[in-house]
């Protein structure tokens, strides 16, 4: 992301790219989250009872979180990179440690701001259930007004979280942020590496949309695979309600779940493979989302640069 554009422009292009990718792949996100939360068995019933609407639970909240998170991340990243590269070219190649440090700090900042919205989204994605085995009774299902068969509203989810744990509940699982912030850092570093190693000439400085898509997809796939057990544990913790468990063996009285404890329970119940439950759908979703986000971001930046050059050319003529 060695762009010469100001941080604000990079932040806007990055957030719009991420929001576009998020909206286009959102049903995959819902499916992946339900698989991770071990609720894939009820997915067919949900689709039968609620049609495609169940695949868009929490869309507005998640899009808002994506816009905010991406804006903060890209703004912080470009601002910090400018500080690290002070006295050098704006497109200078920084050391691996510097690139990762910049991405890591930016990731922590953006996640700190958007964790509440992320938790609310996960609750909305996993909150709708269908308990009836007779999924053909659509009228009965549609007339049911209980929280188990309808999508909880934003306000209802906020009240639910606050009643369970107060304000701290909106940052449940935040400790994983210190590790999962490596995800965007690794992704951006690998994308930079892709540009340096694979691309040549003008494409290296300004990748074409197809090149940005491929580079972003490959970088995200590697980053997700490396950190997936933590991603799974975070989803399980955030989806857990006080009145229910996460479908793991009850080894002790219910208490606040931790990353280490959740990973131990998953391993005890399903072995090492259980730590990668839903990985394929996560990678597939990530390929489409990250690839699209990078592609849209690069396209917006190219349009901004062209517009600036065109305006300067017209001024020169005048």
From TrEMBL:
Keywords: Membrane, Repeat, Transmembrane, Transmembrane helix, Transport. This is Mitochondrial carrier. Belongs to the mitochondrial carrier (TC 2.A.29) family. InterPro entries: MCP_dom_sf (IPR023395), MCP_transmembrane (IPR018108), Mito/Peroxisomal_Carrier (IPR052217). The lineage of its organism: Eukaryota, Fungi, Dikarya, Basidiomycota, Agaricomycotina. The chain crosses the membrane at residues 170-191, 212-231. It comes from the Eukaryota. It is a multi-pass membrane protein. GO terms for cellular component: membrane. GO terms for molecular function: ADP transmembrane transporter activity. It is found in: Membrane. Solcar repeats lie at residues 5-83, 94-197, 207-303.
